[in-house]
Design goal:
The chain has five helices and no strands. By secondary structure, it is mainly alpha-helical.
């Protein structure tokens, strides 16, 4: 199975607001959290392998860049399911016209 990683924003310093990237990649965040929290959703792979599969970042080519990308996505996923969730849900209600 071929996995197409999501395009990443150039600046990995995400704002405290929901951006289009978040909406497009909510499942990416779930996959990242599954690995980060040890749920081993993708066959027990560690962050290095998961980074290639989920984000398209290869630690063998540039470990520090891959780690920054991984850490930024883990942090963003945690923000989304924490304090960002009400913002996400409120913006979703506004999008649906309810």
């Amino acid at each position: 199975m071929t996995v197409t990683p999501p395009p990443r924003p150039e600046n990995l310093d995400f704002p405290d607001a929901i951006i289009p990237y978040d909406r497009a990649n909510i499942l990416t965040y779930a996959r990242v959290l599954d690995v980060a929290e040890g749920r081993d959703i993708i066959d027990g792979r560690d962050w290095r392998e998961a980074s290639i599969i989920i984000l398209g970042c290869d630690p063998d080519k540039d470990e520090s860049a891959a780690r920054r990308c991984w850490d930024a996505h883990v942090a963003r996923a945690c923000w989304i399911i924490g304090e960002g969730l009400p913002v996400f849900l409120a913006s979703d209600r506004g999008r649906s016209g309810r």
